Here is the input.
Amino acid sequence: MPILKLPGLIDPHVHLREPGAPHKETWDTGTAAALAGGFTCVLDMPNNTPPVVDATALSAKDRVAREHARCDYGFHLGANEENAADTAALAPYTVGLKMYLDQTFGPLKMEGLGALIAHARAWHPDHPLLCHAEGRTIAAAILAAHLAGRAIHICHVSRKDEIELIRAAKEQGIRVTCEVTPHHLFLTDADIPAIGPGRAEVRPRLATAADRDALRANLTIVDCFATDHAPHTLPEKDSENPPPGFPGLETALPLYLALVDAGLLTLNGLIERVVTNPRRIFGLPEQTETWVEVDTAAVWQVHGADLFTRARWSPFEGWTMRGGVTRVVLNGKDAFRDGTIVAAPGSGRNVRKSINEMSLRGAS
Amino acid sequence: MPILKLPGLIDPHVHLREPGAPHKETWDTGTAAALAGGFTCVLDMPNNTPPVVDATALSAKDRVAREHARCDYGFHLGANEENAADTAALAPYTVGLKMYLDQTFGPLKMEGLGALIAHARAWHPDHPLLCHAEGRTIAAAILAAHLAGRAIHICHVSRKDEIELIRAAKEQGIRVTCEVTPHHLFLTDADIPAIGPGRAEVRPRLATAADRDALRANLTIVDCFATDHAPHTLPEKDSENPPPGFPGLETALPLYLALVDAGLLTLNGLIERVVTNPRRIFGLPEQTETWVEVDTAAVWQVHGADLFTRARWSPFEGWTMRGGVTRVVLNGKDAFRDGTIVAAPGSGRNVRKSINEMSLRGAS
Here is the structure.
């Protein structure tokens, strides 16, 4: 059995849905899915219900994550039209400020130019600023950040025009980084009928084969891979008003390894995109005594019902994957082994300060 | 009678509607309005019916302008989703390439990032590129031009966020120029009820008093004044589906002079914005033996019915203006004198080569 040993993977973009929608995912089930997929650290997005845009909501998420997370984690703070002046105080407890500039799931979408500029200026230039932006909005976000003298991270780039724009910006020394998802690297709009129209809803949408090919052709300027793990239940996805989003934590690594097998990426290049670069971009501590063992010869079929995610479905249903995580060691202890989650809820650590610990200390 | 002598004014942004909609305006009536307003050169926009996006449409406009224009003129070419590869050949006959990136009058609006980038790259960096863009789209257009290594001109900037963004870009040495209209400098959304909701429709929309004040406070970075003279008939403006646009050529100069009277601008600063800068930005020839005489003490009331524009209305109806054009000399000849248009239709000159002359020469 050929075993590949990798550092613990970092997923800079997940939606663990708790608090607000624990029927879709919880910190318990979501971090179990992370470990099963080889991820030892996940950075969680702020579009919860209510959205994580202030200390109250951040504190509530911190409490539930602290009690239930099985792997390490960080929280992205949400930007909205009103909170630009208030985010700086929350920076020590968060891994980034997320701006939703285009259509997405949840109420966090910001309109117009003003709030974009206000956040680009107000958020400390040393703290990560990231955005959901598509098309021209990516160009607008890059300029706003550039004029504010700061870097920006573009989430889930999905289209040819976009990745080529980011390439051009990087080539001129503009401080922009980006991530792409496994689904935009492996699925296209041609897959929508087979997946089903509701299940295939995702933002950014599945794009064309030319877009997918352009992402693959520009991997040299893709800084991170990110699952954008965004679980919804099957009844929700099959409803008349299907919410956008795919679960992705448990299917990502074999797809990433397939890029290596295809010669599109070296193994070191993969490690940069799932460990080194996310750590650098989001300023994460190194995870010591932490690794993942992968049986690179293992062949398995994706069955949503077998997954740890509470969503229990996958857009890759029925796909044959090569490469199975056999063991995850986190902080010197077995966290996942031979199909079983070993890490207990609450064993995961916040990669930043806990806002609740700080409050307690402040009160003592 | 205190007479102020000015160089002939240049309006870099007018819609003379012919061919396509001569009931709104013609080259005859539109250039008569220009001369009555002190303008000796107008640059005409491409959103005719059909739009001026190719040699055929440009040739048709050239023919009618050549026969009927009473003042000098140039043509902006229209960008669309398909013609990026074909515009370069038309550059010698045009004064700029106009991209409609946000909602406007006519069918020329381009969606998405791809066409914006394609045009920014394909249009020669020495030829003027201009755009109708609002809000974030301005930021996107500036970045696209910057990455293509070229300048861009932003038409009719109307809001605080926008002018401040352009200021920030200029301060960082990015090659962007801009224009503002008299109506955005003098009217706000508070004027809409008095003007009437249909008549007040314009793109960009009339904005807030704070926006108007920000434009006035940032005149140092406004390169040009432009009327965006966009005539529609009163029945059209008072209809259930009023098209956006104001006539503006005959009311602009007194409003510009009012900015000087208010101490917001020097007279030299005004001349820069209506003569020197438009000439430089759009690469126009100097108009020799050409000047305008203004009775700076003349006080008159705006009555749409008295105007030369075929639209025969004004959003400034009933306003008391100070400053009246008494004489316009163009190319050594009287073109307007004491209320009468003297210049004959066809006496105006194309500031570029004529596409039709070129064809004739090519055929000889």
User: Anything to note?
Assistant: Chain B has one domain: 10-286. Residues 10-286 of chain B form a domain with the TIM Barrel fold (CATH 3.20.20.140). The mean pLDDT of chain B is 96.
